[in-house]
Specification:
mainly alpha; single chain; 1% strand; two-stranded parallel ribbon; 23 helices
Length: 529
């Protein structure tokens, strides 16, 4: 062998290479164990169409009841001011009437803190039946209240008490209804089915405001002040009985039943292992749930509050303040103003399910984003059109605001419940929704009317809406897309057995592909994909 000839390199792996291969194999095994497991048939829930229809109908009817009262109160604000606050000036009467209206919203967070966690513990259906009873009784009772001339200062006190009971019960109504529908709806139709809830909102408002409009035309202002204002509130009694009957026939949602079963099994295992678990007991308690909402889900709470502010400031500005703004501030004909807002609500009701279906196809974020930007840009032109006088231009301004409102109304019922996991959904949504509504939504008529009185500017409603649009835009930036995806803490929901089979087969294919990709990337990191 010559001196220049070299021995061939050894093919045995060095200690370092062998150690690296062992580490790679160990990492590979860990990643494969932790990869997302494919779905099984038991993981996919198939919705029951008759049960879904009953759930949507009963939930929407409760919202119809709630907003029937709001429509009546908004259109009768001036009349109620004369009945219960006759010693004040006309402007002060309106502000006093809206202050009573806003007082109901101050107790809504208390209702949310009571009914929300209760709904997560004992079930959605029971709590929704209780809120329906309280709403119907408190609204019905207003129709029997004596006026200021009969019992003096006690009259507005009794009105305030009725409004507080109504607000407390409403604290568990909307969040419970949205949770109920969302947990019954399939993943691909949650936006469409959820939009029927707010369809009930605007139908109820239209019925209430339409009834007041008819009474105004038939009885005149004197007849309304004398006795006619009582009639719309008395209609709440029969509506409440119908809604209660429908809700008592409802079954509990599949997602809640599955969550309750898992919690029961965990508790049974804990008892079998040696007794109660004090940490888990504290976690399941009402106080423990509240603490978990604000410590572990505070980001979702803030996003929810921002989106609720956007929706409800626009909603209450159009539905509650706009009729009074057009009549008391701009001096327009009351019947004309009522008809314009009523027509706007009918347009919203007719288009809202289309927006819900669109959010299933395009996503929730794009709809909220487009609506927020449009509200910032179009609020001032819309208010200028409303101020122009006549019929055509104010009608166009009202239509613009209505189309902006429907962007949020048709999307919220599917978006908000998806922010929270099943075991906390009702409570977290109740608290977030009602805090935001109380601070910003329900106070919109009061603040808007007060700022108009204080500044003398008739553009205050536009500036208020633009600020809401800005908050909504920022909130939407942090919103994760949930269209077509399962709710947090729940498995996939489909409508047919065939869809379930396809979903399971697709999940298995994707799981196999992910495992293959992990193997290739770790064993052959130089490979191109």
């Amino acid at each position: 062998m010559s001196a220049g000839r070299r021995n061939p390199p050894s093919r045995r792996p060095t200690r370092k290479a062998a150690g690296g291969s062992a580490s790679t194999d160990r990492l590979l095994r860990i990643l494969l164990r932790r990869r997302k497991q494919p779905l099984s048939a038991a993981d996919v829930m198939i919705t029951d169409r008759p049960a879904v229809r009953r759930a949507v109908s009963a939930a929407a009817l409760g919202n119809t009841m709630e907003w029937f009262d709001f429509g009546v109160y908004a259109y009768l604000a001036g009349t109620l001011g004369k009945v219960f606050f006759p010693t004040s000036s006309p402007g002060a009467q309106v502000v006093s009437s809206f202050a009573t209206f806003a007082a109901a919203f101050l107790v809504r967070p208390l209702g949310g803190m009571v009914f929300g966690p209760l709904g997560d513990r004992i079930g959605r259906q029971r709590v929704l039946a209780a809120t329906m009873i309280m709403m119907a009784i408190s609204t019905f009772a207003v129709g029997f209240l004596p006026g200021y001339h009969a019992i003096g200062f006690a009259a507005p006190i009794l009105l305030l008490i009725c409004r507080l009971v109504q607000g407390f019960s409403t604290g568990g109504e909307y969040a419970g209804a949205t949770t109920y529908i969302a947990e019954y709806a399939s993943d691909t139709r949650r936006g469409f089915l959820g939009s029927w809830l707010d369809f009930g909102t605007f139908v109820g408002y239209s019925l209430g405001s339409g009834l007041v409009t008819v009474l105004t035309a038939v009885l005149g202002e004197d007849g309304l002040v004398s006795w006619g204002w009582r009639l719309p509130f008395l209609v709440a009694g029969p509506l409440g009985l119908i809604g209660l009957y429908m809700r008592l026939r409802l079954e509990e949602t599949p997602a809640f039943l599955r969550e309750a079963e898992q919690a029961h099994q965990a508790a049974a295992e804990a008892r079998a292992a040696g007794g109660e678990d004090p940490v888990e007991d504290a976690r399941q308690s009402g106080h423990g749930r509240l603490k978990e909402i604000f410590t572990r889900h505070w980001q979702a709470v803030l996003i929810c509050m921002g989106l609720v502010l956007l929706y409800n400031v626009t909603n209450y500005m159009v539905t509650s303040y706009l009729p009074t703004f057009m009549t008391e501030t701009l001096g327009q004909d009351p019947l004309t103003a009522q008809l314009l807002v009523l027509g706007t609500m009918i347009v919203v009701a007719l288009t809202i399910t289309t927006v819900g279906r669109t959010s299933d196809r395009w996503g929730r974020r794009p709809v909220f984003m487009a609506g927020s930007i449009a509200l910032i840009a179009l609020a001032a032109p819309a208010v200028l059109l409303i101020r122009a006088g006549g019929i055509l231009l104010p009608a166009l301004g009202c239509l613009i605001l209505g189309l902006l409102l429907v962007c949020f109304a048709g999307t919220s019922a599917a978006t908000l419940p998806a922010l929270f996991p099943t075991r906390l959904r009702y409570g977290a949504l109740s608290i977030s929704f009602n805090i935001s509504v109380s601070l910003f939504g329900g106070t919109t008529p009061l603040f808007a009317s007060g700022l108009v009185q204080l500044t003398g500017s008739h553009m205050v409603p536009a500036y208020y809406l633009m600020a809401a649009g800005l908050v909504g835009f920022v909130s939407t930036l942090f919103l994760h897309e949930t269209a077509g995806k399962p709710l947090r803490g729940s498995g996939p929901m489909v409508e047919t057995t065939e869809q379930a089979r396809q979903l399971v087969a697709h999940s298995r294919t994707e799981a196999g592909r992910r495992a293959r990709d992990i193997w290739i990337r770790l064993r052959h990191p130089w490979a191109r994909h």
